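FORM 7B: Structural annotation worksheet

SECTION A. Query
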Amino acid sequence: MSRVVYVGGFGNGRGSAERVATALERYYENVDEFTFSEAVADPSKVRRAVRGVDVVTHSAGMLPLVGTAPNTIDAFSPPLPSAKLRLIGRTGLKTVRMHTPGIGIRSIRDIASVASYDVSSVAEFTAHPGRNFGQLTAITTFDAVDAAIAAKESGIHTYLNYSNGDEYYQLPEQREAAARAMGVGVLRMPGIHDELVIRPDATLAYRVD
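SECTION B. Predicted structure
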């Protein structure tokens, strides 16, 4: 039976995780999902869940995979080193762009998707502020390219997917070259940082196609 585990990003609540998990059901028979705070709270559970299966992550969701042994890692918008104040400042820009017609909202359906994201995120930060904000230092110092190369060297098929309009992370060409040289797959796609969460069906279809 084909199986995948999804690990959500910083501040993405259960509703957002379930939305992506539902989209993954088009490609897998069995889908399990973790919010970022759930994965941080119980790393041993994550380690057991991902062993030998495919894993899809969004943003900081790649962090809990360090030292685990999945079959593949498909990371969307994973972190690159960034100053903490810059990351916090870019959050305002990300929020504005997510709610801007033509950028984050590109159809009537997206209005409901963005609203659902907002509700899920508020609920997540209210329920688990420490598990999220307590990881800011780890997030700002994480290098997805180094992590992907290490995973590939340990036998894990690893892919990095970055959106051209990502408000947080833009993968430098030399770092992309370094990743590709070590056998890491790299895909650049249109959209914003939270593209996978807002439009999971379209984003996954773009990745597969």
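SECTION C. Observations
The chain has one domain: 3-208. Residues 31 and 185 are 23 Å apart (CA to CA).

SECTION D. Sign-off
Analyst initials: ____
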